[in-house]
Amino acid sequence: MNIQHVQLRNITKRFPGVLANDRVNFDVRAGEIHALLGENGAGKTTLMKILYGLYQADEGEILINDAPVRIKSPSDAMRQGIGMVHQHFQLVPPFTVTENIALGLRSAREPMLDLDAVGKRLRELASRYGLHVDPHALVWQLAVGQQQRVEILKALYRDAALLILDEPTAVLTPQEVKELFVTLRRLTETGHALIFISHKLHEVMQISDRVTVLRDGRVVGTVATKHTNTKELARMMVGRDVVTSWDKPPVKTDDQILRIEKLSALDDKGLPAVKNLSLDVRAGEIVGIAGVSGNGQRELAETLVGLRRAESGVVSVAGRDLTNHDPADIIAAGVAFIPEERMTMGVIRDFTVQENLILETHAQPPLARKALFDFDKIAAHASQLVREYDVRTPTLDTPVKSLSGGNIQKLILARELSRAPRLLIAAQPTRGVDIGATEYIHKRLIEQRAQGTAILLISEDLDEVLALADRIAVMYEGEIVGVVPPNTPVDQLGLMMAGAKRVSS
Amino acid sequence: MKMEEQPQTRSMPGWQRALNALALPVLALFSALLLSAIFILGSDPVVLTAYAKFLSDPGAALGISWKTIVDAYHALFIGALGDPAVVSKELSEYFATGDTKDLTLAFYPITESLVTATPYIFAGLAVALGFKCGLFNIGAEGQIYVGAATAAFVGYSVEGLPWVIHMPLTFLAGTLAGAVWAGLAGFLKAVRGAHEVINTMMLNYVAFNLVHFLLNGPMKRGGATGHIPISRNILESAYFPAVFPEPLRFHFGFFVALLVAVGVWWFLWKTTLGFEIRTVGANPRAGRYAGINISRNFILAMALSGALAAMAGAGEVMGLNHNLAEGFSPGYGFDSIALAMLGGGHPLGVVLAALLFGTLRAGATKMQSLAGIPIDIISIVQAFVIMFVAAPKIIRWVYRLKGEGGFETVLMRGWGG
């Protein structure tokens, strides 16, 4: 399959009440990486689904090598040499890599499988593109980065000349991102065309040749990467300048709100995850916990809010011992929690915006008297929060599952902060959230700090920790390896995150 | 509004949504009747003989097929809802002469359908309420028997009370017994993590055998001669009164069932306890963090579910049979699992589904006597309806209905996955 040039011309796609794509022009050539940048809901995914045959455009046309084509289904797209690597992998975990590649393809020896032939060609492809993966490995045993390689190999095996990568770095560690970028470069050198969908600016700057920015379904502009910078791209995406650094007056008090003393907890497998950990957070202070994920951060947060048993040690809030108390008690003591897994713990997907906003306080006046809800009060409470926290929702009765990630996070923030908490535990508050929403959430955290709330910010995003925290505690294998000020050089933090160096606090 | 991912969730008018929700079950019923026709043909020896000579006389085979199907469904319809011609004739006669005797007979079929729908409503609500808390109560049948046995006992043993006290007391006693019975399964799940499917299933056997024991021992009717063990009759002061004169069996329990359905809806959507139950059912992890006691809600939901199922049993004793007999329920509790699914777990849906099941069951008897079609055909119709409702994609595909993104998700699998 030979693709020199793919053009999307004047693509318009309407959904009831929404203009998802409005006369969008986009093109990609062999040998280049064209980044498609935009906030959640800007129309990136819709445009790519049209190119991949999952949606049909209402107006406009698609040209491959200057000839108009009709792409009515993903199999049409594949026949034209277009492949897509989805954000959520489409693999069968109990199958081997080879079996996953062979899935859905005709075998040369029907009705018998011919996995040997598949494996052979797979190895050729893997070595040609440097995508090393064991053909006999079971997919569930592979690291996320390797699974993504399998996805890319799957597309290459089907002779894809144009690859659409939908937020490919969202699930990868920094090291895996580096490896992915090497692969992408090699693919362009061999004449593939690549579309790289992202909302992460520095990655786009690093990997792409050209950038097209979408906003509200329209193309804001297409620029050569070497002639632009992150600040300009952010402005194009959001439509205004974006704040990334915050002024924080110094912490005024010495009021200890959260005190953790020699806390230990186990993970789901029963292995020690938090080990003899001590830390404190003062009123009006943000303490950031930095660290590579899987070093006990999730278990620490869950133990603090009463969802996981502390094996030993003490957790106290404003002088009150809350070790191994019920979540209800801990909530009543003024602790708010923004959980890492917002879809499974933060909200109830099938419940409405309104219902999600009253979780935790649903049984208390003024929302309920005795066991009966006061629906007028609930609606007033909910609509005030939706307005105040800029949650974009059609109605209060819209199920939460149809909101975007950023809006769901704002909803959780609204619910948790509306209780005027003494202590806020925020775990990965901006993961997978677009720039506008990230800026908004940061602003709210800073405001909350100014009001005297103690904030424990757990984040894998070092930039976020550096921008917000007054002190940074680095966590490694369940322990705090050091507490350092936010002006600590990134290299040194990196070493600490790898467990190499201890700094006494 | 930025809503790229779910473009379908725009608000549409309420009636349109209701119509959409109804389209699927109605088409499922239609398809089920269509498919069941094949089984009706297969069960009829006359039709089979005609098909043996299909090559020499295809017209006869097709003709007799058509006639058999029309006869069967005609009988089903008349058996379930009454014969429109007879009804209108008796109505005009009633207005002319004021004679109600024949009129009541004309209405007999439709009231029988409602009589059968009554226990279905109660038991369907029981299973649906369990669903809302994420619990699968498959013990409704046993709870029906426990409720019936308790109601029967209170109904005949407590004497000298006026109707206004004895009737509610009897109903409450049966209800409470069901609550305790199922609450036990809830308790075991809450404290020991024992799965409610296993527990309620096992409790079914305990209930069946308990009733067997009671009817052959303590509750045995003195001097009973029939083959089926039976209890004494309950006192009239414990009756759900009949709404119409004999021989119509339609009783007051139907209205109680409707009232209870409204109550269940009100409880689930208007009270904090109902909200907590729904929260636990939708996402126990989030519920736990919100300070909701999961164990307590499991016990509460299970007890309420058992109470509702027991109402079906108590209602049958108080409104229809006026005694406890072994095997008095033809599997209302088991059918209600399917019925609750058909009703989408919503009280209104449950009532509609119960009316459908009641109608089919009542009509089936007539279909057997008039057209000679085995009563089991109705089980096949029911099974098809449930299959189609459980697999909505088939119906959407056959009738080219616009789905809720159903096809997109199929196509989303990408590379031949």
Give a written overview of the molecule.
The complex is a heterodimer of chains A (505) and B (417). Chain A has 505 residues and is of the alpha/beta class. Chain A folds into two domains: 5-238, Rossmann fold (3-Layer(aba) Sandwich), CATH 3.40.50; 257-497, P-loop containing nucleotide triphosphate hydrolases (Rossmann fold, 3-Layer(aba) Sandwich), CATH 3.40.50. Chain A has helices at residues 44-51, 74-79, 97-102, 115-129, 144-157, 174-189, 201-207, 230-238, 297-304, 327-332, 342-346, 353-358, 375-388, 405-417, 435-450, 462-468, 490-497; strands at 5-15, 18-29, 33-37, 59-64, 67-69, 82-85, 162-166, 193-198, 210-215, 218-224, 256-266, 272-282, 286-290, 310-317, 320-321, 335-338, 368-369, 372-373, 423-427, 454-459, 471-476, 479-484. In chain A, the strands form five sheets. In chain A, strands 6-7-8-3-9-10 form a six-stranded mixed beta sheet, with helices on both faces. In chain A, strands 16-19-20-13-21-22 form a six-stranded mixed beta sheet, with helices on both faces. In chain A, helix 14 (405-417) runs parallel beside helix 15. By secondary structure, chain B is an all-alpha fold. Chain B has a domain at 123-345. Helix content of chain B is 73%, strand content 0%. Chain B contains 17 helices and no strands. Chain B has helices spanning 14-42, 45-52, 58-81, 84-97, 101-132, 140-157, 163-192, 196-216, 253-270, 272-282, 284-289, 294-321, 332-342, 347-371, 376-390, 392-398, 406-411. In chain B, helix 6 (140-157) runs antiparallel to helix 7 and helix 10 packs across helix 12 (294-321). Chain B is globular and about 70 Å long. Mean pLDDT of chain B is 86; it is low at 1-11 and 404-417. At the A-B interface, helix 2, helix 10, helix 11 and strand 18 of A face helix 10 and helix 11 of B.
